[in-house]
Amino acid sequence: MAAASEGDEASSRINVAVRCRPLSETERSNNVQSICRVMDRRLVILLDPGASAANDYLRQDKSKEKRFAFDQAFGSDVDTKTLFKATTEPLIKSVLQGYNATVFAYGSTGAGKTFTMIGTTIEPGIMFRSVEEIFAGVAGSDDHTFTVTCTFVEVYNENLRDLGSSDGKEGILDLREDPVTGTYVVGITEIRAESVQEVMDLLQMGNQRRTTEPTSMNVTSSRSHAVLQVRVERRGNPSLGILIGKLSMIDLAGSERASHTNNSGLRLLEGANINRSLLALGNCINALASGSHFVPYRDSKLTRLLKDSLGGNCRTVMVANISPSHVSYEDTLNTLKYANRAKHIRVRAKQNLVRPDEHVSQFEQAIADLRNEVSIL
Ligand code: ADP
Ligand code: MG
Predict the structure, then answer these.
(1) What is the torsional sign of CA 271, 274, 276, 281?
(2) pLDDT tens-digit profile of 158-177?
(3) Predicted model pTM
(4) Where is the Kinesin motor domain (predicted)?
(5) Which of 159, 257, 270, 272 is closest to 213 using CA atoms?
(6) Ligand located closest to 105 CA
(7) Distance (Å, rounded) from C-alpha 234 to C-alpha 232?
(8) Probe ligand 1: pick from 28, 87, 115, 116, max atoms within 8 Å of CB?
(9) Cβ-contact 227, 152 below 8 angstroms
């Protein structure tokens, strides 16, 4: 069936932002050094601790510096509210206008992805703030009616698990394509949200249901990718059709290599699957960044789910989370290189406008085609 989408279309690059978290109390008391500086809200400077003594890199030897420029960069003094306003708030307006948008957090375990996306009650993350902004937009519009529905899903070991359902239908969910808004998860619990609090409850409950197994790196590290999708349908004058915007927000699993975590058995299998998804994500980013015609979205569940968000009909923000610790140097460098490649990806966001009469005629045509097939048989 042809896509029933039309309206404005705008090509843009994905917006790549880097966020460096502060050193923790424990790191400070263990004399961990901060090797990351953020300048001018764009530049990230990473000092190479090398193999030499801890104080070496504090001498600011420029030959040991690595510099990266991003669309935006946030140092350890920047709170989530400021980060949200700079990176995500502009996307919310377009979701209310019927565009798709995605925000995802990438980085190694302990770098601050969950803090950025889900956050705490004192400092709520991007997921909560986005939903709050959507509801503010909905409340501010008198001449339209809006329907807001949310789903929360986990990709774990290449299985999809419904985080919005108490029985956690693990492994039985599958992905399909919607001709208008793109990929969706079949059979997932859709929560028709009337208030921000309902979504906050979903986030907190769902986050507790996430598969969090201890690894040697971080006892609370999540081995799963968590995806919150908010669909906003806007209806006004019936003859003008329905605008459907979808906002996807993703807290990815740790990007560190499995070899770093000293895992074995099940943990290693998980690592392999997580790497399969992240490897596929990396391959898609490479293909898109180089303008290749073939992009291997089908190589993993995560990339199938994110297909629209990466190269298609979407406005996208990537938040690359990094730790300032000298112990995390390799992981931080890998994340910065990864984010640097992602800067070249272009997306084309289209307004998703559904005209019910066109939809009916599409279905009538499909039925006529089926009748023809049956009579031929
Ligand atoms: P990840 O999800 O990437 O594994 P977390 O979000 O769990 O990492 O962060 C690791 C720890 O660092 C947590 O205790 C979190 O509260 C803290 N943290 C992360 N980012 C920040 C930040 N910007 N400010 C303060 N604390 C942070
Ligand atoms: Mg996490």
Answers:
(1) negative
(2) 888 898 887 655 556 888 88
(3) 0.85
(4) 13-345
(5) 270
(6) 1
(7) 6
(8) 115
(9) yes
Q: What is the pLDDT of residues 34-44, one digit of tens each?
A: 999 999 999 99
Please state, in angstroms and rounded to a whole number, the distance separating the CA atoms of residues 327 and 33.
8
User: Could you tell me if 133 and 92 are in contact, meaning their C-beta atoms sit under 8 angstroms apart?
Assistant: yes
* Best probe residue, ligand 1, of 21, 74, 278, 319 (max atoms within 8 Å of C-beta): 21
Nearest residue (by CA) to ligand 1, atom 24, is 21
- Which amino acid would we find at residue 314? C
**Which token pair is 70?**
């991003």
Amino acid at 1: M
- Which long-range CB contacts under 8 A does 201-207 form with residues at least 24 apart? 202/150, 202/152, 202/163, 202/164, 203/118, 203/127, 203/128, 203/152, 203/228, 205/163, 206/152, 206/154, 206/163, 206/164, 207/114, 207/118, 207/163
State the DSSP string of 237-297.
Answer: SGGG-EEEEEEEEEEPPP-S-GGGGT--HHHHHHHHHHHHHHHHHHHHHHHHHTT-S---G
> Would you say 291 and 347 are in contact if contact means Cβ atoms under 8 Å apart?
no
